[in-house]
Amino acid sequence: MMLPGEIYQWTSRLKEPELKELMSSSVLLDYNKGEAIIKQGSLASQILFIEDGMAKLNLEEGGRDTTFSFAVNGDFIGLMCSFVKKRLEFSAIAITNSKVRIFDRDVFERLIRENGDFAVYIVTMMSELTNGVVHTLISLSHKNANGAIAMLLLSLERLFRDVKVVLPFTREEMAATLGYSKESVINTLSDFQRDGLITLSGRHMMILNKKALQLIADKG
Amino acid sequence: MMLPGEIYQWTSRLKEPELKELMSSSVLLDYNKGEAIIKQGSLASQILFIEDGMAKLNLEEGGRDTTFSFAVNGDFIGLMCSFVKKRLEFSAIAITNSKVRIFDRDVFERLIRENGDFAVYIVTMMSELTNGVVHTLISLSHKNANGAIAMLLLSLERLFRDVKVVLPFTREEMAATLGYSKESVINTLSDFQRDGLITLSGRHMMILNKKALQLIADKG
DNA sequence: GTCAAATGATGTAATATTACATATTTTTTA
DNA sequence: TAAAAAATATGTAATATTACATCATTTGAC
Description:
Two copies of one chain form a homodimer. Chain A is elongated and about 60 Å long. The first copy, chain A, has two domains: about 10-140, Jelly Rolls (Sandwich); about 145-220, Winged helix-like DNA-binding domain superfamily/Winged helix DNA-binding domain (Arc Repressor Mutant, subunit A). The longest helix of chain A is centred in the middle third of the chain and has 26 residues, at about 115-140. The first copy, chain A, contains seven helices and eleven strands. Chain A has helices spanning about 15-25, 105-115, 115-140, 145-160, 170-180, 180-195, 210-220, and strands spanning about 25-30, 35-40, 45-50, 55-60, 65-70, 75, 90-95, 100-105, 165, 200, 205. In chain A, about 40% of the residues are buried. A four-stranded antiparallel beta sheet of chain A has the order 1-8-3-6. By secondary structure, chain A is α+β, with helices and mostly antiparallel strands. In chain A, β10 (about 200) and β11 form a beta hairpin. Chain A is about 40% helix and about 25% strand. The interface between A and B is large, with 41 and 40 residues. Chain A binds a DNA duplex through α6.
């Protein structure tokens, strides 16, 4: 439950009546694991905020689905790409059962118009998010298969805040995201398991040796 | 010379006195080809606008310099990454002699605060820019060497608006950007020349067969 | 212009990655 | 629960990419 002015940082940028208006024009929806929260190609008419759960941000292109970011509890989902003119060019998929608050973009934009503090806060958040995504994508693209996979596993550990992770991908989806073949992903994961860095059972993974994984991510 | 309200779209979002204030607190500087316009790690205290010339946006990391975007005449340089809290995490290098207008971030932010129209315009522009960068980086990372190089050459053609292009990279820098070895880049460029797709002489390139290059970029 | 340094070109061996074939396991559906 | 479908695993051959060695060319400083 979202209580004005206390749980989420950004709410403090809004005045009492502004926040009230925004909240009362919003809806809270439940999404099941695997469900699409945002479909690429839909009109950019909403701003989504994840109150509970996790989502992956995908870009579909050339028949491939690439995950380029994640969103967790307390994040605006893909905020840096949400204010486009026409249609959203990304999708968001719940990777756990999630509660998502849906704001109307017009109301949201009106607040940006009317509340300069809020506008600057949003602009700053967008820059930070974009920065992070660009950084991640470039790092990934310069790594070999081992390094890229290690990076992804570590980012999932941060996302879940736990060494136990449920992979939000099939091996093939993971391959598509990283730009390698599914066999490369499968083999590398097997290698990691054989070398005692992780345990694997279907989609359930546990990280056993974070330091070694980090080394592979850095060097690879 | 920048004339209020007529040359650049964004100026029409500002009121006469706002634009006047912004312009009068700005400076126009000349940069020579190759010169650093923005240094990664510098304080995020300015917003830069390129009035004439071209620049490449680089991210340094792991000893490598990766170009992730370009800016030309009429662009804010790296706007989507410019409103970060502390230091800029990208650099910008002039790839032709350029005239750059330097705005003070505080003044710029004050306009975002005080002029809602302007705020929304900036937010929209940031989203569109981020969208484009993410799209480009993901496309590139899924291509083989030939495809990635073809993509880059075609994007340079669009940048220069001409089939004659002066490559803003050494072969090695191009390799760093694309995540391949310099030999792969050199060999592929040689192949392209041998196959009559381009002519090359040092950094001077001419695109002879755009369709074939596009095909390689799409398929590769 | 000359020289030195940097950049570019090319061939080959080593390595990494993919593609294919096939068997096994897990998940889904009826 | 059983059967079917999807996903995973594994070995091997084909392909792509890198790394190394060497030489040619271009660029920049003096």
